[in-house]
Amino acid sequence: MRLQMVWRWYFQIPIYLRLLLTVMFFMFLFGIVIHLVEPDHFPTLFEGLWWAFVTGSTVGYGDYVPVSTTGRIVGILMILAGGGIVTYYMVAVSTGVMKQEKELSKGHIAYRGKNHVIVIGWNERSRQLLKMIKEFVPAEDIVLVDSTLELSPNHNFHFQFIKGDPSLDETLKRANIEEARFVIITSDQSKEEKQADQLSILITVAVRGLHSNVSIITEILTKEQIANAKRAGANTVIRSNDFMSTLFYHEIYREEPVKPFDLILEQLSSQQYKEYKIPNHLIGESFLTCSNEFVIKDELLIGIIRKGEFNLNPPFQMTLEDNDQLITLANLR
């Protein structure tokens, strides 16, 4: 009965472990046998095991060889049985690794890590985001979820690709949504704006339903859908159309167009916005005084949040009040 239980357990373990145990069994078996058959040439069990592993792996150093007829017969059996098993094991492992890599590239392997960032949708915005993360936070664990890609675009970035519809629970669970720290939902701009926003909201609902505490950043194209995205569970809503329209407007109507405007935007990509609760010693002080204090920290004070309203570049003489939130711009490096 005990032997039957061991036999059943043997066939239930993964095939690679099963093959490894089989290889170890034969190596130890032939190592013990050769030690018993030729104790003069293989005085210890270790010498027998060493000969078995070297012979079975077809390395054949020749430092230990059987000299008797019985010992050579054991060697022949070792080469036929043990050598074949070792070769089959190596082929199986190599084939498994290649299959694993292929399935990983196709996005079929579930992610097992924790505290990671999930980026939904492959487009120029997500590509640029991954580039920035790689440059400034190279240790960050990223999972890309997309339904249109056939193979992972992981050429210059380090992330795991999950192929599937991000609005489905099955896809999000393969991305290990329950253990994620952030989810960024980018808008599918190949669709009409209304349809793209509806899809982003649907994905937001699916993510929030599976993880009630994860921080969700949702990109929305139309202003009318912002409230729906927040109701769906988005912590932050990015209005990409409004942002780009504002940039276009300022570039057209500034008195002297800034020629290297693209360089300015590139510099902004290396900056980080920070939010602080106003320190007690700065309550009642002017915005200028507070700005000077942050300059010492190599941070630029650009505005305050007061009663839910953001005031960008307020007058320097503005007096700061209790419960004000300070917004600064700091270098990522």
From TrEMBL:
The chain crosses the membrane at residues 15-37, 49-67, 73-92. It is a multi-pass membrane protein. GO terms for cellular component: plasma membrane. InterPro entries: K_chnl_dom, NAD(P)-bd_dom_sf, RCK_N, Trk_Ktr_HKT_K-transport. The keyword Metal-binding does not apply. It comes from the Bacteria. Its main location: membrane. It is found in: Cell membrane. Residues 114-239 form the RCK N-terminal domain. This is Voltage-gated potassium channel. It comes from Salirhabdus euzebyi.
